Amino acid sequence: MTFKGTSALVCGAGGGIGLATANRLIRAGVDVALADLKDRPAALAEGPGRTLYLQGDLSNENFVESVVAQAVATHGGIDYLVNTTGVLWFGKDTSVMDMDMSVWDQVFSINLKSFALTARHAVPHMRSAGGGAMVHIASIDALRGDDKPQDAYGAAKAGVIRLSKSLAIQLAKEGIRSNAILPGPVRSPMQSRWETNPASLAALSAHVPLGRVGEPDDIAGACLFLLSDEAAFITGTELIVDGGCTARP
What is the model's pTM? Predict the structure, then answer.
């Protein structure tokens, strides 16, 4: 996979899947603008791709517009958009029968609206370049119900899949591809609870057919494939990266 001379915007890049994806792109020579509410991560790759880190709220359209403008001014354009922004609020995001609906609104704003905003502002620059590619991180949780629900998270992730498909059809004739990745359990800051509960992590790992939970780099590798010309005939689809969880009975 070659990416020389290209630029990317990675949203939610302050840690986890977003940071792993940004680092892979940077090491591949892509100039990457990273955006997140978190502080600039210490583990940011050193190159050869150039980097620009922008801190703020990606559910705020003024900030998103500024991020895209600065990315274009610094790197000359945006060829790739990666949306990984998200929250997983255990204890607050529960059943829709019980949860505070302000939590529902916040989760949708962060986990879905931010994806719509970044696409809205990045796509015009892909158009002017004659094409591009987007990858949006959803979740296998979008495919199923749960007796211990996180209803806002799952419903927003289902919305990500639908949004990605719609963008794929709208933009296909302009050479802009849009795909979604559906991770299974992945060790990341969102799942920091596993680090303090080894027994829970071991039980979950045993449930995964491949015998372990995923790492952010597992998702990053899939993301780079979907962005690359190796996936030039792939758009409007979902790639499940879950160690086999959804395949088991």
Answer: 0.95
